[in-house]
Amino acid sequence: MMLPPNYVTESLIRRLASFYDRLGTEIGDRPLVLPNGTFFPDAFTEDEDSVEKLMRRMQRHAGLEDIPIELRILSPKCADCDGNCDCSKGDTTGSAHKCKHESGPSQSSGCSAGACGTCGPEPEEGPTEPRLVDLGDGWRVQIPVAELRSNVVLTANLAKTLGLVFLLDTRLPGHALDEATLDEACETASVALGFGGLLLAASYVYTKGCGGPRVAQLTKLNCGELALLTTLFAERGRHKLRELRKLLAVTQISALDEAIELLRSNQAIVETLRARPVDLSAGNFKLNDGRGLWQRWFKPKPTTASARSAPDEFDLNELAATLATEGSARRPNRTRTHDSKHDELRNLVDEALAEVTHDSQS
Q1: How confident is the model at residue 272, as a pLDDT?
Q2: DSSP character at residue 86
Q3: What is this structure's pTM?
Q4: 12: which residues sit within 8 A by CB, 6+ positions away?
Q5: CA 174 → CA 168, 170, 182, 238, distances in Å?
Q6: Partner of 289 at 20 to 30 A CA spacing, among 23, 103, 130, 174?
């Protein structure tokens, strides 16, 4: 089971609905952005110009092209250069360049030694400088040069940053964002802007490298949570998820299919999200859990006080009674009809076995 438990699912529904309730006009009707050549037709060459084109295109997809945003690529300082080479400059071209004193990677750092570190995207360690800088009349997006090596990392982090820009640009005067839930809010806003597919791709990255298989989660929300939000977005906007499924890995496809199945059992929630999101944001809905028998009994216990008030323990007697009822319904007792030929054949076999036993004893 990839989807979160019911109390988390309900919280995500309320959160997304509150975005549409408060900011539906500003969000507008956004497309479901796919990681393909239709939405990103520009060639990418791991330099600043490529990132600039990518960011401008994502701004247009999100409907944020009227917000002034500039770009800066952050390159790490090289200790061996002592600040005297191009690596120490914060405004380099963004290419994955080498220092002038470097002749290439040593043998001990190659893939044959199992320590290359380039076999897949790494979880974000956090830049030493802020990713978003307030310029007063606009914003500066700062991207570490290492992110240019992975399109999954780069597009997901740009999507989250644009979600933050949207939140900051639409907040009420004097209203501060909650730091404790800021990451989740940014990703929820990013989904509402159409970038759910990009975040979903980064929520579970499986790679096979020199040191064996690795899994990285490059988002705050996990795969099941983002699958639910993305499916809600698609259902609200009547977007088809068929093409997105073709572009995702197996784990994300499984999570997406579970979310689709859940919402098929909750069409009233989808219709309310389209027409009256305020009702969902207030919690005026009931989630019809369309999951299977075992998932309902072995679901994890909630951690919130409100969720703990509902009975959630596993009842062995109830399960046994249900299985017995379902088993009797599926497999009714059948009486065997009398067959004289079958009885005659059995008697012949019994006589033959008796003769063999008698001969062996005598």
Answers
A1: 96
A2: G
A3: 0.70
A4: 4, 188, 225, 228, 229, 232
A5: 11, 12, 17, 36
A6: 23
